[in-house]
């Protein structure tokens, strides 16, 4: 027998009205039975409504419910993982910024897997957050378009799609500063551990590297650029590959401190000295890098400034095209992992 329940397509959004029609009850009844703030009814009708809502894939529309009940003061934050020190530092800065603005944050993680940010967003929206801050933007992802269509307030942080409200560091400048530092020390063969292509932050730092090399009139050999994740093991693997090149680099710029730490470990295991044999620069200036046996030169990101700007953008009703993407200026912190090179 053919079911008379609606069969929404993947792209359509199931509404309270859809659930009401399928359950044969009023819209107000559905709203009452599905309102998590109300005492949970255990009546047969309530149980049936909740079951039908699950079957249809109903997700509460936070933008509509917010108009009815006002703000909750909660802001959802989506990060790849909190075991990544960079993301933990970002979340801590966002939590502090939230407190200063009379709000508080809750977090969801995605392991940086494609599509996981969409599930995390739905989870947070069901919790009733007033808006989202996402550090998971990926090249080609359509989540931001979906959030715009649904009227969900959101801001991108650390990564950007180039069009939505974003609070980021100037990654191109940071990559330039790191590479220029090595050039000024006399290095001409500079390897790059480039990070994942899907992240705008990595692409910006690669662009900065290329700009500095071109400005100095230096050749960029394709074999000197190794892709990676933002993980330690990936950095170690990239460094080993760079050291197999016959005319190997005398310096390496890793676009993330974790990959730089992995690179340092691999170089030491190969019997090479940092910085006597290979100078090394990382990015983000996480706390541990200044306490390594050889303190790591790194590019520092002003996380507090990025977090504050993210909340300002989230709160603003409108922003001009010139103010849609806020860019914080990084700075280079020289330490013991880099030294002058005499060719």
From TrEMBL:
SUPFAM superfamilies: lambda repressor-like DNA-binding domains (SSF47413), Periplasmic binding protein-like I (SSF53822)
GO molecular function: DNA binding
Domain of life: Bacteria
Pfam families the UniProt entry points to: LacI, Peripla_BP_3
Annotated ranges, domain HTH lacI-type: 14-69
Record-linked CDD domains: HTH_LacI, PBP1_LacI-like
Listed PROSITE patterns: HTH_LACI_1, HTH_LACI_2
Protein name: LacI family DNA-binding transcriptional regulator
InterPro entries per record: HTH_LacI, LacI/GalR-like_sensor, Lambda_DNA-bd_dom_sf, Peripla_BP_I
Keywords: DNA-binding, Transcription, Transcription regulation
Keyword Transport part of the UniProt annotation: no
